[in-house]
Amino acid sequence: MPHHLDTLAIHAGQEPDPTTGAIMTPIYQTSTYVQAAPAEHKGYEYSRTDNPTRTALQECVAAIEGGKFGLAFASGLAAIDTIMRLFSPGDHIIVGDDVYGGTFRLFEKVLARYGLTFSWVDLTDLDAVKAAFTPATRLLWLETPTNPMLRLADIAALAALAPERVLVAVDNTFCSPAIQQPLLLGADIVMHSSTKYLGGHSDVVGGVVALNDPDIYARLKFLQNAIGAVPGPMDCFLTLRGIKTLGVRIERHSSNATAVARMLEDHPAVRQVIYPGLDSHPQYALAQRQMRLPGGMLSVVLDTVEQAHRLVTRTKLFALAESLGGVESLIEHPYSMTHASTADSDIAVPPQLVRLSVGIEHVDDLIDDLRTALAD
Predict the structure, then answer these.
(1) Strand ranges (DSSP E) for the chain?
(2) DSSP conformational letter for 192
C-alpha cells in the first residue's frame, strides 16, 4: 500500500546513512568525488552533475508530487528557464494572463528575444484557450492559483483540452503537493519555487521539477547539468528539512488564512477579499474539487493605492517583504514589488491590491495586527 504524503515527506529518498546510521540526510559538502579508475565511480563524479544530498531532495519531491522523477535547481526561475529550453525558436507557448511577474519578465523580456512566442490567455475561459492553440504550440503554462489574483485553472480540463503535441506544465508554488498534485490531474510537468512552502522557513532559495515521462526527464537532466543552475548541498538539506513538516504547516496556513479572510471580508475598509476558501470566490466550486485545502495566500483590494500603502506599512506581525510560504506572515504591494515588471503591461496588477502570505502564528494575533493596521 503506498504511503501518504505526510509519510513520504519525511522518508522518501532519505534512508539512514549506511556508514554511521545517521537518520538525517548528510550534507555532502563536496565538489568532486574520488574514482577507483578513469570513469569508474560510485554514481557521483562532480557536484554540478549530481550530489547525494540533491539526489535525496529530488527523490523526495518526485514522491510527494506523485511523480517518478525529480530535479532540483538554484531557484524557481532557474527551473522555469530550464524547462523552457526544451523548446526551439518558432515554438509557441500559451500562458495564463496573470502569471507571476518574474515569469512574465523571463518569458517576455528574455526568452522572446530567442524566438519563442507567447500568447497570454485567460485560463478560466476554456474556449479562449482552445482558440489559442496553433500548429506551433508546444506548451501550456499554468499557475493555479495565480499570483496574486488567485484565479484558478482547471488542471484536468486544460490537460484534456491540450493536443497531444502540447506539454502541460503547472507552477504549483502557491499550493504545494499538500493541497494539489497536478501530475495526478493530467499535467506533464510540475514545478515549484521551493523557496516558498516546500522550504517553508524563508532561509533557502531553490526550485524543483517533478514529472513522469522518462524521455522528458532525460532531456531536462541533460539541461540541468549543461546549464548548471543547481542548488548546493546545504540548500538541498534545508529544503528537505522543510518538506518534512509540509503537511502540518499547510494545515495551519490554511486554517489561519481562512479566519483572516473571513475577518477581512467583513471589514468596512476592505472592498474585496480574494481567497479560494471563501464561497465569494468565483471559482469556489473548482477550489473545493481540485484543492484539498484553500492554502495560505490571499489578496485584498482597498479603495485607493494610498490605503494599500498605509496597510502594508502599518502591520507589525505581517512583515513587509517579498516572497511567501514561510512560517512567518508577510504582506506586500505587488504592483510596486513582486509584479513591478508587469506594471506597464496588459497583465498589470491593480495598484490597490495587497497580497498576504498568512503564516502559522496564533491566528488571534494576526487578526489583531490587521485590524489595528486598518483602523483610522
Answers:
(1) 69-73, 92-96, 117-121, 137-143, 167-171, 189-193, 207-211, 272-274, 297-301, 319-320, 330-332, 353-357
(2) E
Grid coordinates belonging to 10: 519525511
To the nearest 10°, the Cα dihedral for 109, 221, 186, 147?
-30
- Look at residue 324 in the predicted model and tell me its pLDDT: 97
Task: Using pLDDT thresholds of 50, 70 and 90, give the confidence band for residue 2.
Answer: confident
Nearest to 8 by CA among 66, 49, 51: 66
Find where cell 522557513 sits: 201
For the stretch 290-303, what's the b/e string if a residue is b when 16 or more beta carbons lie within 10 angstroms of its beta carbon? bbbbbbbbbbbebe
Catalytic residues: 48, 100, 171, 196
User: Which one is the CATH code of 247-374: 3.50.50.60, 1.10.3660.10, 3.90.1150.10, 1.10.630.10?
Assistant: 3.90.1150.10
C-alpha dihedral sign at 194, 195, 200, 203:
positive
The SS3 of residue 53 is: helix
Q: In angstroms, rounded to a whole number, what is the distance separating the alpha carbons of residues 54 and 313?
A: 39
Residue pLDDT, tens place only, 115-156: 999 999 999 999 999 999 999 999 999 999 999 999 999 999
Please name the amino acid found at residue 360: I
- pLDDT given at position 376: 80
Digit-coded pLDDT (tens) for 69-126: 999 999 999 999 999 999 999 999 999 998 998 999 999 999 999 999 999 999 999 9
- DSSP readout, 308-369? HHHHHHH-SSSEE-S---SSS-EEE-TTTTTTGGGTTSTTPPPTTEEEEE--SS-HHHHHHH
**CATH number, domain 5-243, options 2.40.50.100, 1.10.238.10, 3.40.1010.10, 3.40.640.10:** 3.40.640.10
Tell me which amino acid residue 105 is.
Answer: R
C-alpha cell at 13: 529518498
Express each pLDDT in 161-209 by its tens digit.
999 999 999 999 999 999 999 999 999 999 999 999 999 999 999 999 9
Q: Locate cell 506597464: which residue? A: 344
